[in-house]
Amino acid sequence: MTIKDTPQEWEVRATDTPFVGNKTSVRTDDVVMPGGSVVRRDYQVHPGSVAVLALDDEDRVLLIKQYRHPVRQKLWEIPAGLLDIPGENPLHAAQRELYEEAHVKAEDWRVLTDVYTTPGGCDEAVRIFLARGLSEADGDRFEVEDEEADMEHARVSVDELVRGVLAGELHNNCLVVGVLSLVAARTGDGLDALRPAEAPWPARPFES
C-alpha cells in the first residue's frame, strides 16, 4: 500500500459564494455523500501561498514577527505571501517575498514541502521553499505598510526553533512545518536530495 494523497472530486449539486473579500471568498457547496445524502459544506477559497525557510551559513533561520489579528498574537514566522497572480510561478513569488519582507536574496532554492493549511475549512495550498546562500538584496528596501510596518526580524538557530515548537511556544504553521521538515530532510537523504525549486505543484499549477 502506497501512502499518498489522491485527487478526487465528489458531485456538487449546487454552489454559492455568499461572501467575496479582498483576497479570499467563502463558498457554499451542496455535496453528495457516498451514501447518497446531500450535505452543505462552507469553506474559504484561497489563491494559495508561498513561504521561505531561509537558512544562513551559521545554521540560523531568518524570522519575522508580525501581528495576526484573528489569533490576537504577534507570531514568529518565516517570510510568506499570497500567490496574487493566477498561474504565477511560486518560486518567483517566494523570491519576491524574501526580498520584500527581509531584503534578502538566496543562491540555492529547493522545495521543502507542500501543505494544505486547513483542508477541512479552506482550500489554501502552501509551498514552503528552502533558501540557502543568503546575502543582502540589491536596491532599496521595499516600503512596508499595515501589519508589516511593525515587523521584527531575527535569525534563530534550528535547534532553538525545534525546542520552541515542541514546547508549544511557536505556532505559525509554515514555521512549524518548515523547521521540522528541515530536520527530517537532514536525517533522511539530505538537503540536496530535496525536490528542485521548479518541481510540479498540482495544487497550484504554474508556468515556468
Automatic annotation (TrEMBL):
CDD domains tied to this protein: NUDIX_ADPRase_Rv1700
Domain Nudix hydrolase: 44-178
Signal peptide residues on this chain, from the entry's feature table: none
Membrane-traversing stretches: none
Keyword entries, A-Z: Hydrolase
Stored Gene3D superfamilies: Nucleoside Triphosphate Pyrophosphohydrolase (3.90.79.10)
Stored PANTHER family: ADP-RIBOSE PYROPHOSPHATASE, UDP/ADP-SUGAR PYROPHOSPHATASE
Protein name per Swiss-Prot or TrEMBL: NUDIX hydrolase
